[in-house]
Amino acid sequence: MSSAMVYLLGSVVLDVIANLSLEHSDGFKRRRWGVLAVVAIMMAFALLALAVQTLDLFVAYAIWGVLSITGTALATWAIFGQRLNWISWLGISVLILAILLMNFGG
């Protein structure tokens, strides 16, 4: 696995952590969680910036977005009990298909 992909996947993990922290902060009522969300998203974008030094921006950002959305959906289901209906899962599937098509397209 290339270093760019490691940076990209690390960025995804940090983005999911930021999203979960933001949810847990309860609208920044729990400031520590809110601060963690801000720091994690800043670190996520720093890693994304490293990834796009060798990956095409549109591909990296698209992969990052789909993995972050999917990861956040799964994590909020597991941690907070939030559910997605079949239409939401269909939408995530379409996003994943779009990423695959973009990668095959060049």
TrEMBL record:
It is found in: Cell inner membrane; Cell membrane. The chain crosses the membrane at residues 6-22, 34-52, 58-80, 87-105. GO terms for biological process: glycine betaine transport; spermidine transmembrane transport. Belongs to the drug/metabolite transporter (DMT) superfamily. Small multidrug resistance (SMR) (TC 2.A.7.1) family. GO terms for molecular function: amino-acid betaine transmembrane transporter activity; antiporter activity; choline transmembrane transporter activity. It comes from Marinobacterium marinum. Keywords: Cell inner membrane, Cell membrane, Membrane, Transmembrane, Transmembrane helix. This is Spermidine export protein MdtI. The keyword Transmembrane helix applies. It comes from the Bacteria. One of its GO terms (cellular component) is plasma membrane. The keyword Transferase does not apply. InterPro entries: EmrE-like, Small_drug/metabolite_transptr, Small_multidrug_res.
